[in-house]
Task: structure prediction
Amino acid sequence: MWMPEIPPFLPFFIGALIVLFTRGILRNVIMLAIPVLSALHLWGVAEGIHLHFTFLDYQLTPYRVDKLSLMFGYVFHLAAFIAIIYSLHVRDTMQQMAAMLYAGSGLGAVFAGDLLTLFVFWELLAFTSVFLIWARRTKSSYVAGMRYLIIQVLSGVILLAGALFYASENNTLEFGHIGLEGVSGWLIFIAFGIKCAFPMAHNWLTDAYPEATVTGTVFLSAFTTKVAVYALARGYPGTELLVYIGAAMTCFPIFFAVIENDLRRVLAYSLINQVGFMVVGIGIGTALALNGAISHAFNDVIFKGLLFMSMGAVLHMTGRINGSDLGGLYKTMPKTTVLCIVGAASISAFPLFSGFVSKSMVMSAALENGYDWIWLMLLFASAGVFHHAGIKIPYFAFFAHDSGIRASDPPNNMLLAMLIAAVLCIAIGVYPSALYSLLPYNTSYNPYDATHVLAQTQLLFFSALAFVWLNLKGMYPPELRSTNLDFDWIYRRVLPNTLQQMFSVIWQVDSALRQAFLIRLNQCLSFLSKRHEGICGLLSRTYPAGSMVMWVAVILASYLFLSFIR
Amino acid sequence: MENKKKYLFDNPKNIKRLLYFLYGSCVLLFVLDFVIHRHVMHNWENLWGFYPLYGFVGCVVLVLIATWMRTFLMRSEDYYANEGKADIGEKLSSVDKKQNDEIGRPDVDA
Result:
């Protein structure tokens, strides 16, 4: 092969530099060419360590290739390519550069062979992606981006601390199995968990993604959380705690998704729900479960990208994204509607769509390993995800009541990007062997046996029936213009308020104390001056000149006396 | 195209058709449960109509709980936006007051 040791992040970083100096069609051609060429190159790269050097007594391996990292490498190239097509109409150098750098950082992170390199790309992911949020250039996107950046950088700092502990405990920085042992294990786990949107650390995602630009969200949905999933899959496979965390992640977001009005925020919640399935798979840690988690990450990048693209198209064409403002768009955006429904069917795991062939692996693994209750939760989450992402998104955007908006389908480049993603969703669903052959472990798994297909179809159709029934009964919660409190309420509202009140009390006490002290001091002074006032008093202002002369004479006399002694 | 174009679901008949298709599929899937021989991995799966019931009940419970959550989680759309402004305003006025207080106080460093 030609130039086998070019790490995949390099073409993207160079591309970002070229973007800065080119304009128009040339820039677009270069942006499209980079993921294609880089992917072709990656296809021929053999497994193993390709870049390796010593830095301050530590062995660093910035470029290591194995089946796990290759899987993420492929899907990141795919995601970058699709998202670049989707954003070809954008004329914003900052956004295009940030996108290239961001994609490159994601690739750098999954091919990092040591913790220090991982840390560098971990932080780069944060610093490059935040520009995709700020590129919206609104006040709310600016503050949401700030919160996003603070949390992401915090995760990076914890990772660095963990890596340093790890180096001192194990005398190596190699990024392999870590496990929850010692301080380093926990610190790195927390750092990965923040980026993976663990419960209570998840609000950066639902806060920032819907505030990003139309095209920026498509990039964002592909990389950050999947890098975290990759890192967990490498460092913590088979950690039982992850099973429970993952199960919680699949369940709680669906409640918020049902009552959320901003349809891109609904998708952000369902992104957490999907990542939950992957985390459960990693926690179970058998070959089947890990394969399921990784292939689900692969599929999720594509179908979640497709859904974000279709909602982005709606936002781009109508300027609105709240369910309460939309409806009836199928009339004038038929192509977008169909493509969105393909994405919805994929995320809901309908047979013959991509979600089905990967999610069922995790579910089967949960049953095989005796996690009965977890399996029930996953089943509930599967029904729930169909409910909010599979039905709610297309229904409120494209059907429901007619909002009177008559927007046409989006520009051709957006449609093409969505079409590519939709074709992939169906292709993987119909012919899963191609995906399975890339997986790191060998399991002869067949998703299409009659039991599975029937069970899943029953589950989904009766969920749809529930939706119809609730709607006809008028029990379905209407889309309302509102903010729903989530965990971010703690740090956006409670914490600042508490701190403010605490400091106001502290300041009050402080000023009261100072004042009391001053008053006391004044009193003392006036007491002393009063005491020694009057003629010949020690502190008297009316001291006679005569006594002063006498004291001077006394001092001089003592000097004279002292000189005699010598 | 003229303005008063009829679209697919403007005709209530088409909505009815879609719903009947859904009801029909549900019945069919339910019956298939008894026809197809299933190799189950878990006892619960043996229960009569486990997946259909679980899907239906699960979704209804999901929606009911979510609706109930609205009663204590829902705030106005500009909840956070207003909060910031009110805070800043309050702070400014309190600073002003403090300065006024200090200026007005004669005995600070007499």
